[in-house]
Amino acid sequence: MDILNILFAIASIGLGCFGWLAPKYTMGALNLDGVKDTMGMSEVRASAGCLFVGMGVGALLIGTPAAYAMLGFCWTGAAVGRLTSCLLDGGTRKKWIYFAVEAGVGLPALLLNI
Question: What are the domain boundaries of the chain?
Fold first, then answer.
C-alpha cells in the first residue's frame, strides 16, 4: 500500500510539473484555446473547480492536522505557480491578487497544522 501511495504522489508531481514548467505545451495538449473542442472548459471545471472542492471536503472528512496541512500545501503550491507566472510571464494586478489569496490560505493552513 505504501508503494502505491508513493507512486501516486510521484505521478502527481510529474504531471503537475508539465502544467507548471511547460504551460504552453499543456495548454496545447488540453486544447485550452476553446476552438477545437470543450476540453478547456473541462480542464477549468476539473483543476480550478472540483479539485479545490475535493481538497476541502477531504480535509473536513479526515479532520486531522495532516489533512489540513495538505490543504495548505495545495494552496501554497498554487501560489508558487502563480508567482512563477508573475515573474516569468509578467505580473498583472489580477495575478498578484490571486497570488495573495492563494498564499493567504495556504501558508496559514501550513503554519497552523505542521
Answer: 50-113
